[in-house]
Amino acid sequence: MELIKTDIPGVVILEPKVFGDHRGWFTETYAYNTLKDLGIDVTFVQDNQSYSKEKGTLRGLHFQQNPMAQTKLLRCTRGKILDVAVDIRKGSPTYLKWVSVELSAENKRQLFMPKGFAHGFVTLTEDVEVQYKVDAYYAPECDRSIRFDDPSIGVNWGVANPILSQKDMNAPLLCDSDCNFVYEG
């Protein structure tokens, strides 16, 4: 597995080795020891999967507050997405900066983001499945979201009229959020 750094320290792209022949292909998508050797020492406790029917579906920006903040490892196993991580740790040198990466069933890339980041994605094809691992269980009382189009962040989603859930349509701006992430160096 190859680790590719992004413009935000700690947020990395993982590109697995794919072995193919006339039957198809094989790849290792997760091995604790492999990630640990790459400097990612995280114990994941829950796997999640989402399905989005229509192209232009936007999910985000989501996060869980402390004490149930989540580190995430995401991959797209069907279709294609633009995946986005936003640094929302107050005091961070990259506060409000974001990175995006195209994840697809074809490129098999994964995006790793530590605690303190809001996450979202927009589907670039129809019939998209996204799978991700987290290192803390879902805690409804800590579940938060911020507006996908928050002008203080300025994510370029590449979609004029995204398909949104009611939750995402009603999400607050970050300045109106009770986000409790603080950069610790």
Keywords:
185 residues, 6-stranded antiparallel sheet, 2 helices, 5-stranded antiparallel sheet, single chain, 39% strand, 13 strands, mainly beta, globular
> Which series of helices and strands comes N to C?
EEEEHEEEEEEEEEH
Structural class: mainly beta
**N- to C-terminal separation?**
27 Å
Give the overall form.
globular
Mean pLDDT: 97
Q: Within the largest sheet, what's the order of strands?
A: 1-2-10-7-12-5
Q: What percentage of residues falls in helices of 4 or more residues?
A: under 10%
The share of residues in extended strands comes to 35-45%
Number of strands: 13
Radius of gyration: 16 Å
Summarize the helices and strands and which ones pair or pack.
Blueprint: E1 2-5, E2 12-15, E3 18-21, E4 24-27, H1 32-37, E5 46-52, E6 58-64, E7 72-78, E8 80-87, E9 98-104, E10 110-113, E11 117-123, E12 128-134, E13 143-145, H2 166-169
Antiparallel strand pairs: 1-2, 2-10, 3-4, 5-12, 6-11, 6-13, 7-10, 7-12, 8-9, 8-11
